Amino acid sequence: MTVTTERLAALDEPLEIAGRRFRSRLILGTGKYKDNETMIGAISASGAEIVTVAVRRVDLDRTKEEGILYHLDRERWSLLPNTAGCYTAEDAIRYAELGRAAGFTDWIKLEVIGDEDTLLPDVEGLLEAARTLVAEGFKVLAYTNEDLVAALKLEAAGVSAVMPLASPIGSGLGLLNPFNIRLIKSRLSVPVIVDAGVGTASDACMTMEQGVDGILMNTAIAAARDPVQMALAMKQATEAGRLSYLAGRMPRREQAVPSSPTTGMLD
Amino acid sequence: MTVTTERLAALDEPLEIAGRRFRSRLILGTGKYKDNETMIGAISASGAEIVTVAVRRVDLDRTKEEGILYHLDRERWSLLPNTAGCYTAEDAIRYAELGRAAGFTDWIKLEVIGDEDTLLPDVEGLLEAARTLVAEGFKVLAYTNEDLVAALKLEAAGVSAVMPLASPIGSGLGLLNPFNIRLIKSRLSVPVIVDAGVGTASDACMTMEQGVDGILMNTAIAAARDPVQMALAMKQATEAGRLSYLAGRMPRREQAVPSSPTTGMLD
Amino acid sequence: MTVTTERLAALDEPLEIAGRRFRSRLILGTGKYKDNETMIGAISASGAEIVTVAVRRVDLDRTKEEGILYHLDRERWSLLPNTAGCYTAEDAIRYAELGRAAGFTDWIKLEVIGDEDTLLPDVEGLLEAARTLVAEGFKVLAYTNEDLVAALKLEAAGVSAVMPLASPIGSGLGLLNPFNIRLIKSRLSVPVIVDAGVGTASDACMTMEQGVDGILMNTAIAAARDPVQMALAMKQATEAGRLSYLAGRMPRREQAVPSSPTTGMLD
Amino acid sequence: MTVTTERLAALDEPLEIAGRRFRSRLILGTGKYKDNETMIGAISASGAEIVTVAVRRVDLDRTKEEGILYHLDRERWSLLPNTAGCYTAEDAIRYAELGRAAGFTDWIKLEVIGDEDTLLPDVEGLLEAARTLVAEGFKVLAYTNEDLVAALKLEAAGVSAVMPLASPIGSGLGLLNPFNIRLIKSRLSVPVIVDAGVGTASDACMTMEQGVDGILMNTAIAAARDPVQMALAMKQATEAGRLSYLAGRMPRREQAVPSSPTTGMLD
Amino acid sequence: MNDTIQETITVTLNGEERQVPGGLTVSDLLAHLNLHDRSVVVERNREIIRRDEYAEVAIDAGDTIELVHFVGGG
Amino acid sequence: MNDTIQETITVTLNGEERQVPGGLTVSDLLAHLNLHDRSVVVERNREIIRRDEYAEVAIDAGDTIELVHFVGGG
Amino acid sequence: MNDTIQETITVTLNGEERQVPGGLTVSDLLAHLNLHDRSVVVERNREIIRRDEYAEVAIDAGDTIELVHFVGGG
Amino acid sequence: MNDTIQETITVTLNGEERQVPGGLTVSDLLAHLNLHDRSVVVERNREIIRRDEYAEVAIDAGDTIELVHFVGGG
After folding, report:
1. Which residue numbers of C are catalytic?
2. Does D264 contact G66 at a Cβ distance shorter than 8 Å?
């Protein structure tokens, strides 16, 4: 969309997940916006090509209320159904199958939550569900802990992307453990997409500088004072962090080094 | 230059220093590039409108070698001479006057260095020089410590901008003391531009999120593995941090908050 | 041993694990010391009452070389065998049973490692082994990730203590994720002992200030330039962090507050 | 006082300021305690040998109210009068002279404040006052910014100790800029004592690990929920940080290193 | 939906007991609920019904039916 | 303090105008204020009075006197 | 260890094939290895031998024996 | 620069003693050094020479001349 993004296309290879290629390294959630217009404005500003959706009951008493598909242009954005709210592998598998049955995609953002207060993942249940869903032919993008061993097992299970958290969902605490994220990225071949916890643009920028392949966020944009403006900030920050990672930062020095010549001074 | 920057113009007021207005909030140094072509490429990619230069003796034995003005399009970039390398108020004043005598500008980036190893400023000498130069009609942009009281005195002395450091010149250690920078910004009316120490894009993004008016950098770009690409990253990061500051980040929460509805779950 | 420790006894309740009470909140590993004399000196200086040991083959070719029990006064220190080096639940269970068969204790420091480079735990295997060993009557102290859900499951499995890591074994990177450690402590009833990663005294002090019940360390002392002196530092730091937690720190303020009266100034 | 402190005496040389030697590296303020009994209890628990006091008008209407000297055993604690509340060199000099005239000491904790909200020092005024007071024969302990050049000038002016802040007085924000503190310590010969901003025991421990000679604190103890207990924690933390610095910490490694042997495993 | 008189049957719809006409197919039910033009996924007694079966699969008394769709989520 | 009748004079004491008997020395003044047994530092018209001068230095009308001591401070 | 003449047998001891006299009990083996006075745990064919069985349990040809003890570890 | 024969004089140019023809103006000196087409600032005996004075100001023996310009710097 921006000249910069076009330049990016020249400077960076696309993000490839399950054989599909994307220019944007930002994936957006569609929850918690004050209205659909703001949601669409934010998604557009962010440049995201993939958006997540949740599977829920139709409200039979207000059938006028349309589902989110009524608002999302499916030519423009790829849907990524999630299993948010599932606390067992069995539930997550059921929601994944319902999401696939809608007929748009066999991709699933797999969440198996282990604790209501923190929404932190249950690694045991997650691995069980991932193995089953991969066997059923799903393309699984797995929301997980910043846990290297779990990440390696998810990759071995055949998931299409591993999505470790930066900090708890909706917390906005940012990247609490860059070391673990760097470690996970250094050991995996499938894309590593940091999911949850990013709170502000510098969090996104620093996260991309760890070398990860992308970021998935929702609350940081939806709960900003101006979501559309923050979405643009996040687009810029994600591109900046990626470019900075590719450009190769200067070495840190505890010693200062002048930027101006030390010779040619006057007497 | 990019659509984003045009959008920025709508979303943000320009940066105003000494009565002049700028769209870019990034000021670039011109030192330490491996060649002039890289320097020009980096400055162009960064979108900077102001570039700093140093005052040094002409090399009489290699008069073929041209000064930097031979390479810099003065229609495109405003020059900001510095007093780098000066260790006393007297020296700094002398260099400032030589810079002004070149006939391009009465702006001066004032440095009075107090220590050779760290290039940290000498607040006493800095205040003395600032008072004199303001009296001589210079527009003074003062490189200083992350020292609130020094910043307040510089403002009282009539400088056009206060430029506290993030960390030592050329160190790339990033924003060591965000608290002090936020404090200084909260108390001054003149522009606050963070000068020196930024090492990577996320440093620039986080620095702008403190609410400061701009950033001056040199080594982070010149010493990156790919300076032109890093310059673009810095442009994006600076815009992202500014936008993020204006958009208003989400509140931090130690408690998680779901992004998907908790109602409408299946039995 | 020191007056301070006696005062501590009055200020703090003892650490209780599996029905046994300890004054010291520091558990020491016995590996990697340059000689046994240094090891004994360090353990003595640390005030630790529990020390870990590993289960390994007797070296049949150097039967003069005695096992560690030859050096450790078992009246003075309780042994805690570990399952270090085990990569499956089955192996860990085998080592645990061998450790118990030595006839000193039914306590086991359970490690199920998932990755050779980082020695990070395999949560799946850890839970499986913990459930089996608890059923076999072991008192299990489980080395685990800073993973709340895994910690809750370990507690549900009946372990005697949950031991999340501060950072990888032997890395000395300190407490990378205080938030998760605080979170785990806030949700568990069994003792939470931070195991691995502490590198220096302030790491230990800060870790105890999160409210955890104790710390297990080895390399930070064994690999210090002066292990005995560092052991004393760690003792002091652990007591200091505990006391500080109990005493209740002052509130943080972004505003300064004078320590001297603002009244009674002269004209 | 404690066995540990006695061991410390063997492990560490005393702190020497202006030719006097002290065992404790902790200096305490006497302000803001809820009552004198708590103050005395806290000072005693801290092991401090030097305490600061302020110079203020006698309250003529309540002449029953005694000054602090009525409560402080001058055999046990050395007094260090301060110039808190002074905003000019002239005022600070006046208060210093009044403090000396009380007849107990020619030491002065020099503060020249530049801003009411933050109580941050005015480096210009500080240097002016320091030069005058040194010339008048005072032993000056100068409260200053974490500013290397100011510290070097204070040393050149002949002060007996340089006391950079960790963060603003009474803020409890801890050591905001360890880099600058380490830098200052590495360049000065006179004692470097970190003054103000320490909020909790781990702050004190980490501060001492930078290699500084001591810490001056007040609010962190007086405003703790249990000041006496926190005073003991601070004593322990200061000793721990000092010992840890002397013992030499282990190297940090991004790679894990096992604490148990990797050989002798079973088949 | 045939036009002969029908008695109503009770089914569990999205967790609530509801009366609906007897003899409905899934298609009939969606029409009955004004959801025929909506992309709704139907689960009957914990089994997902494929779209192309909507016209055949009958709703019986006592069935547990879940009608779900996509909503905003992260 | 001699016992002949004295008129009072006005001085500024710690910032407040006060009436005190005329002809007092610093020692007298401290006694008059019940501060004689206290370690108080005396500044008279911006000049510090040495302890050993308390008995000689007289307090005159219009003097500005500061009486200070140590209090708790950080 | 009885004193009649014995042929040697081959066992796997801590991962290595070794010749030991035939007809040894665990106690005999430990003595033979000069480990009788050491607190060593014995695993025979993946089964831990209780201390009080050392005198009865015989070592047979082809046995896999592990002799372990505690060493320094974290 | 007039064409009559000139003796050379010694000046300190950017810190080094140099022989230059006598009777030069600043303009002459710059031309002599091939700097006439360059934006160079001239300081003579610690005083900056304004551009419009280049043609008048003469260079005398013993002068200390600094010729400076802008270079890359941060």
Report:
1. 109
2. no
Q: Which residue of H has its CA nearest to A257?
A: H74
Structure tokens at A112: 């198996």
Interface membership of C101 toward G (CB under 8 Å): yes
For residue range B156-196, what is the model confidence (pLDDT) as tens digits?
999 999 999 999 999 999 999 999 999 999 999 999 999 99
Q: Do E71 and A53 touch (CB under 8 A)?
A: yes
Q: How far is A263 from chain H (nearest CA, A)?
A: 11
By Cβ distance, the residue of A258, A259, A267 closest to H15 is A267
Nearest to D97 among F15, F34, F48 (CB): F48
Q: Quick one: angle between helices C3-11 and C227-247, nearest 10?
A: 30
pLDDT tens-digit series, residues A117-135 = 999 999 999 999 999 999 9
Give residues with Cβ within 8 angstroms of E21, minimum separation 6. E1, E6, E7, E8, E9, E28, E32
C264 touches chain F (CB under 8 A): yes
Contact C266 F43 (CB under 8 A): yes
φ and ψ of B213, to 5 deg:
-85, -20
Residue D148 backbone phi and psi in degrees, to 5 = -55, -45
Q: Nearest to residue C125, comparing CAs of A124, D13, E13?
A: A124
| Residue of B143, G63, B155, B95 whose CA lies nearest to H74 | B143
Q: Cβ(A77)–Cβ(A105) under 8 Å? A: no
For the stretch A154-195, pLDDT in tens is 999 999 999 999 999 999 999 999 999 999 999 999 999 999
Phi and psi of A37, rounded to 5°? -65, -45
CB contact under 8 A, A266 and H43: yes
If you measure CA to CA, which chain C residue comes closest to D42? C247
Give the 3-state secondary structure of residue B63: coil
Q: Is F21 exposed, middle or buried (0-12, 13-18, 19+ CB in 10 A)?
A: middle
In this predicted model, what pLDDT tens digit does every residue of C150-203 receive, in sequence order?
Answer: 999 999 999 999 999 999 999 999 999 999 999 999 999 999 999 999 999 999
pLDDT at B264: 85
CB contact under 8 A, D58 and F50: no
**Number of neighbouring beta carbons within 10 Å of residue E19:** 11
Residues of E in contact with B266 (CB under 8 A): 15, 43, 66, 68
Yes or no: say if B65 and B89 are a contact pair by the CB < 8 Å rule.
no
**Token pair 């001239």: residue:** H42
What φ, ψ does residue A107 adopt, rounded to 5°? Answer: -85, 150
ipTM of the complex: 0.88
Is D82 strand, coil or helix?
strand
Residues A2, A100: Cα–Cα separation, whole Å = 33
Residue of B157, B213, B159, B226 lying closest to B24 (CA atoms): B213
- Decide: residue A64, CB within 10 A, 0-12 exposed, 13-18 middle, 19+ buried: exposed
For residues C85 and G39, the answer to whether their CB atoms sit within 8 Å is: no
CB neighbours of A35 closer than 8 A, spacing ≥ 6? none
Is pLDDT of A1 > 70?
Answer: no
**Alpha-carbon dihedral of residues C204, C208, C213, C217, nearest 10 degrees?**
-10
Task: Report residue A236's pLDDT band, with 50, 70 and 90 as the boundaries.
Answer: very high
Summarised one tens digit per residue, pLDDT across range B111-162 is 999 999 999 999 999 999 999 999 999 999 999 999 999 999 999 999 999 9
SS3 (DSSP) at A176:
coil
Q: What is the rounded CA–CA span in Å between residue C85 and residue H55?
A: 86
Residue type, A13: E
Under a CB-based contact definition with an 8 Å cutoff, are residues B147 and B183 in contact? no
Q: CA torsion angle for B217, B223, B226, B231 (degrees, to 10)? A: 0
**Element spanning D143, H or E:** strand D139-144
C-alpha C253 chain-centroid distance: 33
Q: What does the alpha-carbon distance between residue B1 and residue A2 come to, in Å, rounded to a whole number?
A: 10
